[in-house]
Design brief:
- With about 100 residues, the chain is mainly alpha-helical.
- The protein has one domain: Orthogonal Bundle (Arc Repressor Mutant, subunit A).
- Helix content is about 35%, strand content about 10%.
- The protein contains four helices and four strands, in the order H-E-E-E-E-H-H-H.
- The strands form two sheets. A two-stranded antiparallel sheet has the order 1-2.
- The longest helix has 17 residues.
Length: about 100
């Protein structure tokens, strides 16, 4: 229950849903940032992971350096992570870094 003087402008569901920022740029859907990524508060503290795994998006981003480890190599390190899922992880990581 709100106390007198408190105002609620939005809900957390609205914060995590996709929206456009003040520059009219789309902001990612934090509940499901990419087709093969998922966010579950009970898994890895809510950090985005490869769907169906506990492998975080940034783990894949740190692994793939395009010098010694390439996208095609990811399943050798993480058998449950497909090349397509690794691509989603890299894409999301790039978007997060660009926004920082």
């Amino acid at each position: 229950m709100l106390r007198p003087g408190q105002t609620s402008f939005f809900t957390l569901a609205e914060v995590f849903s996709p929206f456009k920022n003040l520059r009219s740029e789309p902001v990612v859907d934090f509940r499901h940032p990419r087709e093969r990524l998922s966010v579950d508060a009970r898994k890895m503290g809510g950090w985005p992971t490869i769907a169906g795994t506990r492998v975080t998006h940034d783990t894949i981003a740190r692994l793939v350096d395009d010098r010694t480890v390439f996208l095609k190599d990811v399943p050798r390190f993480y058998p449950d992570v497909s090349v397509e899922a690794a691509r989603d992880a890299l894409s999301f990581n790039e978007q997060v870094r660009a926004a920082a």
